[in-house]
Amino acid sequence: MSTTSSVSGQSYINQLSTGSSSSATTTSSSSDPTAALSSTDFLKLLTTQLQYQDPDSPVDDTQMAAQMAQFSSVAGINQMNTTLSSIQSDVSNSRLSNASDWIGKAALVSSNTVTSVDGIFAGQVALDSSAADVKISLADSTGKVVYSQDYGSQSAGNVSFSFSGTDSNGDTVSGPLSVKVNATNSSGGSVSSSTSTWTMVNAVNSPASGTTQIVTSLGTYDPSDITSIS
């Protein structure tokens, strides 16, 4: 590391930060010239400045206090980043632990398809507004309706449905089944709705990079997409 014997006027650190050409130089602990200064690099620069300052024009107390405050801030930010990283890791582990408890349970997810949970096909239809009549039907892969129920007049909100899994002939339905909703108002117009169904949670995927995924009989969902667990 080569240096000159004096640095006058602007402080050495200030000259570096503003890109001013100064003959006083130092070598960063990082081999990457574009890397940000670490707290160790900062301390080296500060001590080098004190060692080679011009005795006839030393760095004044105000500059020194400002540089020490800056060093303190850098150290504090580094410590905060370490703490936040630790907290983030703890939260991620906690979320994974909570999600793993869902395996083997039923989850309510947004879907127009319903699968069997212990032999029962169930879900709910969310009506955007009141309906004079609501009819919910379930159909198999061939389009055959295996369940149909008229729920009559319903207020805005959730209308739950449940099918035992046995059709009118007494045959067991395997599924999955498509959910069809016909909701109308007093004028005969359609009432908007959305459907959620219950499905079994089979596994939880937690890749090294990326978000935790819940694997269900209907597919893969983010934990935030799970409306309810039973």
Automatic annotation (TrEMBL):
Any Pfam family the entry gives: FlgD
Domain (FlgD/Vpr Ig-like): residue spans on this chain: 111-186
Chain intervals for the UniProt region annotation (Disordered): 1-34
Annotated keywords: Bacterial flagellum biogenesis, Cell projection, Cilium, Flagellum
Compositional bias segments (type: Low complexity): 17-34
Function (record text): Required for flagellar hook formation. May act as a scaffolding protein.
Family membership noted in the UniProt record: Belongs to the FlgD family.
Protein name: Basal-body rod modification protein FlgD
